[in-house]
Amino acid sequence: MQTNILDWLEATAARCPDAPAVGDVQQDYTWAQLAELARRSGSALAARTAPRCPAAFYLEKSAPAFAAMLGTVYAGCCYSVLDPRQPAARTRQVLDTLAPALLITDAEHADAAAKLSYSGPILSLESLLTADEDAALLAARRVQAVDVDPLYINFTSGSTGVPKGVTVSHRSVLDFIPQFAGIFGINGDDILGNQAPFDFDVSVKDLYTALYTGAKVQIIPRAYFSQPTKLMDYLADHAVTTLVWAVSAMCFVSIMNGFGYRVPSAVRQVLFSGEVMPIKHLMKWKKALPAARFVNLYGPTEITCNCTYAILPDRDFAPDEVLPIGRAFPNEKVFLLDESDALVTEPGQAGELCVSGTALALGYYADPVRTAQAFTQNPLNPNWYERIYRTGDLARYDENGNLFYIGRKDFQIKHMGHRVELGEIEAAAMRCDDVSRACCIFDAEKQRLHLFYTGSCEKAALLTALKANLPPFMQPNTVQQLDELPTNKNGKIDRTALAALTKKGARK
């Protein structure tokens, strides 16, 4: 029985030691090299930590960083990657919650790391990778490990302003990744074009699918997602076959006409998640890659990457068509509850999407109150302990049992006596020609709807289109054109920043 993700690393390194495992713009590692560097790092870390302690990484993603992350696992610990581009105040908040045994950084970020007011030891990435291997110490750590030990902690935004550390175990990753790789046919011949930063759970599918299958992870520099020609050259030159990307990254390519410069023709499938995919951008991708398979994935960090998937049919989609989020992955129970916690089964009826199964996270690190609020007993089951995660997302079934995302519970608002889904207003704006992206904010205090959008569409033309397609109670009170919509560290639209813009505008 496999109980540790290192089982995958060691099996793959034994099966194909000289095959490429991971690469970035500066270096490539084979599976044998990756395993050796992980053991070296693990030996150095185990000498300085107790089992099951978190280790924090303060650096950009890279092949050496991945090796050292696996080193924390060899040390019997878990890792948490901190984005060096986020504000220092937020990083300090995370460090206060995490209280890591040590902080790992590289030469590029050493000065910034030293200014974080972190009182524990700060180790250099370079020193870990060159440490001597201590086989006996690693064996001692391995023998005491269990499959429900934490593997990683990803911090996500919290509604209270304090980040939440989603803590995921080995067992959850061991449960999900084989299903993910098997359903989509990912194997040792694939090259995964890693878009997501290592502190974002989309990267988990890249890194651990590679460990499981022997596929190569080709790490794409963050900077390339503002340089379309470099991005398209990188994908094509490295013959990337599989993209597991956030929707925002795909929209960047289509908005910047990346395919007009060069098409990465080796790409055979594109799996996207994180936000609702705008149909106009999806169709640009399908036109550029007509032989590729496109998959809509859904699921929050708390359920280990994804809980549902929809393999999209090979056809064109109408501008106003809604993409399904599909059906549950194997060994994940996905169901809908209404406001009274009754099971929703009727097509078209909205309910909160809930999940149970092995893939659920352990909870929020050092935060029992918010853990208890989100991870609860299944109200449909009075007979034994069955923990579920309440996503806060609304969904519905169609006549064939496919799930469709409606929106956030907290994005369903009451305006002029009517229930309004902000996502419906956004979708109407996105159907207009020359609107690239759109986001609607509701000011509950003043009962006003504020729409923000990007693209070359004239404001008057957009307002005319919205009046023709939306009832009066859904008409935005203000419409503002931006050069780009603000995003959070995971590339999702930052609604808090947009809400601040509405207040700033009111003060003028």
How is this fold's topology laid out?
Layout lengths: L5 H10 L4 E4 L4 E3 H16 L7 E5 L4 H12 L3 E5 L5 H11 L3 E4 L4 H5 L7 E3 H5 L5 H9 L6 E7 L7 E6 H14 L7 E4 L7 H12 L2 E4 L8 H10 L4 E5 H9 L2 H4 L7 E5 L5 H10 L4 E6 L9 E4 L15 E2 L3 E6 L5 E2 L6 E7 L5 E2 L3 H7 E3 L9 E11 L5 E6 L3 E4 L2 E4 H9 L4 E9 L4 E8 L3 H11 L8 E4 L13 H13 L1
Parallel strand pairs: 1-10, 3-4, 3-5, 5-6, 9-10, 11-12, 12-13, 26-27
Antiparallel strand pairs: 1-2, 7-8, 8-19, 13-14, 14-15, 16-17, 16-18, 18-21, 20-21, 21-22, 23-24, 25-26
Helix pairs in contact: 1-2, 2-3, 2-7, 8-9, 11-13
Summarize the structure.
The model has no long low-confidence stretch (mean pLDDT 94). With 508 residues, the chain is an alpha/beta fold.
Structural class by helix and strand composition: alpha/beta
The coarse silhouette is globular
Q: How far apart are the first and last residues' alpha carbons, in Å?
A: 64 Å
Largest sheet: 6 strands, antiparallel
Global Rg: 23 Å
State the helical fraction: 25-40%
Strand content: 25-35%
Low-confidence stretches: none
Number of helices: 17
Mean pLDDT: 94
Extended strand count: 27
